[in-house]
Specification:
Blueprint: H1 15-23, E1 32-36, H2 42-50, E2 53-58, H3 61-70, E3 76-80, H4 88-95, E4 101-105, H5 110-120, E5 127-131, E6 136-137, E7 151-152
Parallel strand pairs: 1-2, 1-4, 2-3, 4-5
Antiparallel strand pairs: 6-7
Helix pairs in contact: 1-2
């Protein structure tokens, strides 16, 4: 399925990058992970192999249908919704803990997504994302809780 620039889609096709994003979350074997903008599911597959469950939030209805068709429903729930309307607090409450966040964020909405997380008081337990079409990554080079969340690339 081709990318839709009007939705800021720029699909991540680098297997090594998707594995690095998933690995940067550490041991998530017993956790639910939220993925923003799964697109064609590259990061989703890597997360599903490591996490107990993935909540994949996808705005594009065609991609949501495609993802549901090939991802295991017992490991991945595809939520067709604007991420700015997703209730992170409710998802965290249901899981009984703050949830880790991952994704390849659409360039036009990266700031609103991160600002919404910062201003609502419902913080992810950790955030490992890339921002599309940008020289900025939220995936630290070293796994350390003292490293800043944002690292220029």
């Amino acid at each position: 399925m081709p990318a839709k620039p009007k939705l800021g889609q720029n699909f991540l096709n680098d297997a090594q990058a998707t594995q690095r994003i998933a690995a940067a979350l550490g041991d998530i074997s017993g956790q639910t992970v939220v993925e923003i903008g799964p697109g064609q599911g590259a990061i989703t597959r890597a997360l599903a192999a490591r996490a107990a469950h993935v909540l994949a939030i996808e705005l594009d209805p065609h991609l949501a249908v495609s993802l549901r068709a090939y991802l295991p429903p017992d490991r991945v729930t595809v939520i067709e919704q604007d991420v700015l309307n997703f209730d992170f607090a409710e998802a965290s409450k249901h899981a009984g803990r703050r949830l880790p966040l991952a994704g390849n964020l659409p360039y036009y909405i990266t700031s609103p997504i991160l600002l919404a997380r910062a201003t609502t008081g419902c913080y992810p337990s950790q955030c490992r994302c890339t921002a599309q079409s940008s020289g900025f990554s939220l995936c630290p080079r070293a796994r350390s809780p003292r490293r800043p969340m944002c690292t220029p690339q």
